[in-house]
Amino acid sequence: MKYKYLLLISSVLFACNVDKVTVQPVDDYNRVALLENLTENVIIPVNQNFNLKMISLTNAADLFTTSPNNDNFNSLRNTWVEAYVAWQHIEMFDMGKAEEIDYIKSMNTYPCNKTIIDANIQNSQYDLNDATWPSWASQGFPALDYMLYGLDSDSSLVINFYTGPQGNKYLSYLGDIIIQMSSKTTQVNDHWLSSKINFIGSSGNTRNSSLNLLTNDFIYHFEKGIRANKIGIPCGRWDNFKPYEKGVEAYYRRGLSKRLVLEALEASSNFFLGIGFNTNIPGESYINYLQHKIGDNTLSNKITAQMSTAVSAVSNLDDDFISQMSTDNNQMLQAYDALQKVVVLLKTDMLINLSITVDYADTDGD
């Protein structure tokens, strides 16, 4: 059994014990058609799109390193935002090469550890391939968030760190982080292209079959990556409802957090609906599979309706989650509750009807 652990949360089994559902023999639904649509029209296109965003980020960083002026710095910041938004479509696919190289952890472990980042910059001694939490918390998007927005409370003065006496150290670390991100992105992108035939062909109903892994990663991301990491931890859902400001995604780039959540929700919804990333056209999806198993779209309609409710709840929040929590944290908690209802529908109703077993330990005591 593959177990995934969420930073900052411990967990207890869901009361429904859905992870004990017995795996049933594969049914007569064409799982290959579903895998083909999700792979060809969702997974590979979003990875290719993100790869392009990382190329743009790399080019912007190179230009800034060559000429560290205000215009190039603002361009670098903008490409970082664009890449971070595109990343929200990638994070749910933690399998294959991505899992092997700790892609998700190294790209978006937050909050970052500014103490380690500062020490890495000053000492110029670090190993970004170190597969442990301290390393993950000193690289990826959160580390860039700190280096582009958090080095000084006055954003206009941040650039001085790159042009001052130790500017080369800051430029070097900035470049190394982006090189690491780009290298891993290329590996994952190439792996999907080279393995897609075998991935689509693995259509059985076992713990290691493609659709079972893909479905579990999708639900795990919705439950942990979106519901818990983006909303639950910051608003103190497991800490007596005491807000944890540093737990906000894009903590230093105030005002971006809500956009990232909404993008992640759109990515999740499109995945569930089988909507092509480049075409915006729905193909074979979980709706078809559930209809085949149940005989109608009652459950699918409940899931899509609750996803819409969750989007509305998040949309009602302030763009700046830190400001939102300080003025009315109850709205953050309400958004969490709306997301939790989606989790229950996916993790209990959907998995039971599709006879897919949960492959990760869940115990955050919701």
What is the secondary structure topology, with strand pairs?
Layout: H1 31-66, H2 70-87, H3 97-100, H4 103-108, H5 114-123, H6 133-136, H7 140-150, H8 160-163, H9 167-201, H10 210-232, H11 257-273, H12 286-294, H13 298-315, H14 321-354
Walk me through the structure.
This protein has one domain (18-354): A middle domain of Talin 1 (Up-down Bundle). The protein contains 14 helices and no strands. It has helices at residues 31-66, 70-87, 97-100, 103-108, 114-123, 133-136, 140-150, 160-163, 167-201, 210-232, 257-273, 286-294, 298-315, 321-354.
Q: Can you tell me the CATH topology?
A: A middle domain of Talin 1
| Spatial shape | globular
The proportion of residues in beta strands is: under 5%
Order of helices and strands: HHHHHHHHHHHHHH
Largest pleated sheet: none
Number of domains: 1
What is the typical, i.e. mean, pLDDT?
A: 92
Broad structural category: mainly alpha
DSSP summary: helix tally: 14
The first-level CATH class is given as Mainly Alpha
Share in helix: 55-70%
Task: Report a brief summary of the structure.
With 366 residues, the protein is mainly α. The chain has helices at residues 31-66, 70-87, 97-100, 103-108, 114-123, 133-136, 140-150, 160-163, 167-201, 210-232, 257-273, 286-294, 298-315, 321-354. Helices cover 63% and strands 0% of the residues.
Features:
mainly alpha; single chain; 0% strand; 63% helix; 366 residues
